[in-house]
Amino acid sequence: AQSVTQPDIHITVSEGASLELRCNYSYGATPYLFWYVQSPGQGLQLLLKYFSGDTLVQGIKGFEAEFKRSQSSFNLRKPSVHWSDAAEYFCAVAPNTGRRALTFGSGTRLQVQP
Amino acid sequence: DADVTQTPRNRITKTGKRIMLECSQTKGHDRMYWYRQDPGLGLRLIYYSFDVKDINKGEISDGYSVSRQAQAKFSLSLESAIPNQTALYFCATSDSDRSGYYGYTFGSGTRLTVV
Which residue of A has its CA nearest to B2? Predict the structure, then answer.
């Protein structure tokens, strides 16, 4: 079975600083990988996804993520954080068969300081 | 109107009571899911349905049941609620086209408190 680990429960960055959120997965083959964001009081919104091909994927709101097979990682990055990026971020994984549901990590809460 | 609507938004119920959470969608998606969110645990899958006749248990299905009444409706029931089922519950949908498998659309959630 697939699993996802987000080692950072809470991260605080200053507005304008760069951001990297870590995600490690466990799966026997190359899975499908995702990042979702949850703003307070809201459901989750898809930021970006990786299925295959180019290991650097671009998403919405200026986010990108890089798939590193050798490290079983799919870290999320943003070069310059805005105050509106404060939210909880979830990494998720699914097998590439399409016959399963997503497995989510435990989330990383991002706080942005002025 | 929202694409995925969950009712109620908030509910307080007593231990031992039966409660149903409802989810309806206008996306036309075949696939529907129920997750619960607990602080520090992320979202955990309760049940999922790939079409009206295809319902599957997730990792934490004990104490829950579901009904897929139509393509657009997927209800979650707690037969006899217990306090550790206090959580935020999310319904989600996704397309059955390969590219849409995991582009979930989430509802706004139902906050359930069992006292």
Answer: A43
